[in-house]
Amino acid sequence: MLIEELTMTEFSVGLMKTRTVLIPVGSVEEHGDHLPLATDTMQAVEVAKKASQLVPLFVAPPINYGNCRSTSCHPGTISIRTATLKALVYDIVNSLYVHGLRNFIILSGHAGGAHCLALQEVGEELLAALAESRVAVVTEYVLAKEEGRTLVETPGDSHAGEIETSRILHSHPHLVKGTGQEEYPNFPTGILVRNKRKFWPGGIWGDPAKASSAKGEQIEALVVAKVVELVRQIEAFTE
């Protein structure tokens, strides 16, 4: 059930079927010269929609912005502070809780370190504040990486590489502009840099040339299955 498409009556009826909601979190972030800036959001939303077709599940409108540190100097990246991200998630979950939702799955399509840590932190805060809540925080990329390991040819593939290019070739092929060049970032260990693009000029981490729509379809299906499994786990979870 896509919340943005429901009437208030349909929302109330939906609460009789499930008290679980999935909140997709994405980013507006460079993904090389070949993938759209909303790649992370698109992947999380596609998975959420497909999971909701398999199990009773509310899907909230996505949070389209995230914290993007390593790509902040690349054209098109729009980054928000982790404090802003935490406040957004907190307020959205709190409002959904008031309306009767109890199980919250925060599914991030963006895998930035500070971004993911912020989501985990706010998840802990929500657990403490909302007595009847259950909260899961999962990075969609991790599910894709782990579940699709046998399908991926590129060791260490990550941002805008084989996995993500395959995913978008499957879900939004009209938005893919070629395949991009193989590249890996070269940041100095431990040193924070101002000119991040100097150490990662093309914004790709992996080899997009190895991507295919068929791989993308298989990886997406694996991630959907893991999300469905997570829905069932959180609904049955007790402490």
From TrEMBL:
<dbReference type="GO" id="GO:0009231">
    <property type="term" value="P:riboflavin biosynthetic process"/>
</dbReference>
<keyword id="KW-0378">Hydrolase</keyword>
<dbReference type="GO" id="GO:0016811">
    <property type="term" value="F:hydrolase activity, acting on carbon-nitrogen (but not peptide) bonds, in linear amides"/>
</dbReference>
<protein>
    <submittedName>
        <fullName>Creatinine amidohydrolase</fullName>
    </submittedName>
</protein>
<dbReference type="InterPro" id="IPR024087">
    <property type="entry name" value="Creatininase-like_sf"/>
</dbReference>
<keyword id="KW-0862">Zinc</keyword>
<dbReference type="InterPro" id="IPR003785">
    <property type="entry name" value="Creatininase/forma_Hydrolase"/>
</dbReference>
<keyword id="KW-0479">Metal-binding</keyword>
<dbReference type="GO" id="GO:0046872">
    <property type="term" value="F:metal ion binding"/>
</dbReference>
<dbReference type="Pfam" id="PF02633">
    <property type="entry name" value="Creatininase"/>
</dbReference>
<comment type="similarity">
    <text>Belongs to the creatininase superfamily.</text>
</comment>
